[in-house]
Amino acid sequence: MKQLFFLTLICITLSLSAQNTIQWRNDRTGIYHEKGLLTSWPTKGPQMLWHYDSLGEGHSSVAIDANKIYITGMTGNTGYLYVFDMAGKLLKKKDYGKEWDESYNGARGTVTISDSKLYIFTGTGFLICMDQNTLNILWKKDIVVDFGGKNIRWGVNESPLVIGEKVILSAGGKEHNIVALNKKDGSLIWTCAGNGDLSSYCSPLYIANQQVPQIATMMADHILGVDAATGKKLWSFKYANNRKIHPNTPIYHDNMLFCTSGYGKGAVMLRLTNGGRSVEKVWEVADLDPRTGAMVKIGNYIYGSGDNHKYWFCIDWKTGEIKYKDKSFGVGAVIANEDMLYCYSEKGEMALVKATPEKFDMISKFPIVLGTDQHWAHPVIYQGVLYVRHGNTLMAYKAK
Known about the structure:
By secondary structure, the protein is mostly beta strands. It is built from 3 helices and 34 strands. It has helices at 2-20, 25-28, 143-147, and strands at 21-22, 31-32, 48-52, 63-65, 68-75, 78-85, 90-98, 112-114, 117-121, 126-131, 137-142, 161-163, 166-170, 178-182, 188-192, 205-207, 214-218, 222-227, 233-238, 251-253, 256-261, 266-273, 278-285, 295-298, 301-305, 312-316, 322-326, 332-337, 340-345, 349-354, 361-367, 380-382, 385-390, 393-398. A 5-stranded antiparallel sheet has the order 1-4-5-6-7. Strands 2-28-29-30-31 form a 5-stranded mixed sheet. Strands 3-34-33-32 form a 4-stranded antiparallel sheet, with no helix packed on it.
């Protein structure tokens, strides 16, 4: 009985810990698990609780841990990490080095938080590890100098993946294509040559429930599966567009891996076989091609929007059948909570949409009137609050 009690306590503790930490798209799926959120919004939108207007340039989303909010931005050509409390009070601001200022300027990859450490991958190609409490830089790596990588057209962009003691990064070098570093000191644990592709703006995904637990990601010309323990390349699938850009983290469920990118390439569904050591194509469809907005899986359906195809789509997970196309709302990023889609248009509107394969069932929408430049940062939901970043402004809305 005592053992059962302690096991239950451990499970509860782990569950609470997971709920209290938000990384890229929550857990990289874009699916949130809040209860009691509003099912419709007032005409002018939900109540704005607070906003902060001095983030500088950038497109990164918020990360949250232990009731503190972390986000990056660029002023001049210097990147800064901002730390807020849940009421929007700025607690700390710390520079971390040069950021991307050559095109679509600003901070890019969302902060990853693990064991009191913060991991930031800059648009200039540095992986930086900071102490979560002091914000001191503990170590950093340069993908060009340390791994033979190259920067890419709009600055490298991914949110580092932490698995146990490893932090995973797409370095993009010929020899050091995907690397696993010790998250404490940055030392190299393993390296994978992959296919020698450059990186392609994709934040990698960890797939734990195969015979060979693995990392799945999209590089410039291939979708890639890598043994998480050893770095051995398990499989690759040729998948390229004319820009070599694949910014959307794949979606995995029950041996199926869904990958998509913009510039007209569309989407492909792969099946992992032989315990994850190989893949086969199940179906492919050209219409669902989000460029930076990603997609979500709810039930047996995938929801997202297009790049060349300026529609919102619903596609059957199993068959690739298109259930609807809708052009009534501008395309952009999507996240989900329960059976509702939160769609953030590149035109600067936020919509609440019922997730149903029957139609794009928009319940409410409101304009995002603060901020600067592109509407590209992905929204975040945490403890009944909807966080929206637009350039130099972070906004918090009451969603519950």
